[in-house]
Amino acid sequence: MRIAFAGTPEFARVALRQLLDAGFDVPLVLTQPDRPAGRGLKLQASAVKALAVERGLALAQPRSLRLDGKYPNDARAAREALEAAQLDAMVVAAYGLILPAWVLKLPVRGCLNIHASLLPRWRGAAPIHRAIEAGDTETGITIMQMDEGLDTGDMLLSERESIRSDDSTATLHDRLAALGGRLIVEALEAAACGGLVRRSQPAEGVTYAHKIDKAEAAIDWSRPAEEIERRVRAFDPFPGASFQQAGETVKLWRAAVAPQRGAPGTVLSAAEGLLRVACGDLSLDLLQLQRPGGRRVGARDFLALRSTLQVGATL
User: Fold this and answer.
1) Residue 305 pLDDT more than 90?
2) Coil/strand/helix, residue 41
3) What pLDDT was estimated at residue 261?
4) How many Å separate Cα 106 from the centre of its chain?
5) Which of 78, 121, 281, 301 falls 20 to 30 Å from 153 in CA-CA distance?
């Protein structure tokens, strides 16, 4: 089978590597244009582009695929490349561009999406983050036949993955990326011999995983401790849950619920390596923190640099 691949971040790179290692012919890779990154804001290639260059694959980086959009020349060039590739199917994983109807209809077997949830739960841009934030105990991967809706296409394959009590988006992402790579290979191998069964998504249980906004990072200490702790894990590595202290934005990367109570945002303990802050119901022990420009450190090291942080202070 001749497979085009469209994807951008590390999650997609894992799937592309699995397809290549399984022997699929990938005549064309689509990924987002290089973006400024880091302190110097130098243009940085996506994880998928890096692998495509390493493997010598043909690459396209259109800014849009809409023929009637802002970048019609990009879209026309991409269309010519896709048509020339004579595709059996197209695999899409965290690409970041909307696929118009002409793309969906072009491959013989259409476009297959690797989605990081058990559809129809958590359709949308941030399914891993939102599953952890909501306190879900399991998620998974769904291989979906794409249509013009937002993650509304028929399901082809799915497999469950438990969410551990200490999972962050980073750790869960890595397991789901590996699972997604394995399942897309299985799906395409089954499709090649007519063994894929399409199932409509159920109408019940639909939720939307809205894109993460940096404004969500600020911790609201009036919320329940368990809810804040989940959000800390959900926002690791991006955007990082944070609070203000001594005029700085401090990021909180790990926390644990504690039974002590107090006025929300009040420091209940700040000695002997224990930094405890009251929440809306119980409290949180802040276990791993990071100052601007610094590295992640434990509470003991953080407190050693914060001699003014005392019991009774308000964050």
Assistant:
1) no
2) coil
3) 97
4) 27
5) 78
* pLDDT on residue 12: 98
Q: Coil, helix or strand for 246?
A: coil
> Is residue 197 located within the same domain as residue 225?
no
* pLDDT at position 257 over 80: yes
Domain stop point among 209, 225, 254: 209
Output the domain CATH number for residue 94.
3.40.50.170
Assigned token pair, 315? 């964050």
CA of 254: how far to CAs of 57, 227, 248, in Å?
40, 13, 18
Write out the residue range of the structural domain in which residue 226 sits. 217-304
How far apart are the C-alpha atoms of 270 and 245, rounded to whole Å? 13
> By CB neighbour count within 10 A (0-12 exposed, 13-18 middle, 19+ buried), where does 293 fall?
exposed
Confidence tier at 309 by pLDDT (50, 70, 90): confident
User: Could you tell me which of 302, 315, 291 has the C-alpha nearest to residue 240?
Assistant: 291
| Contact partners, residue 90, CB within 8 Å, separation at least 6 | 3, 4, 5, 6, 82, 103, 106, 107, 110, 111, 112
d(CA 95, CA 86) in angstroms, rounded, equals 21
Which tens digit of pLDDT belongs to each residue from 191-226?
998 889 999 999 999 999 999 999 999 999 999 999
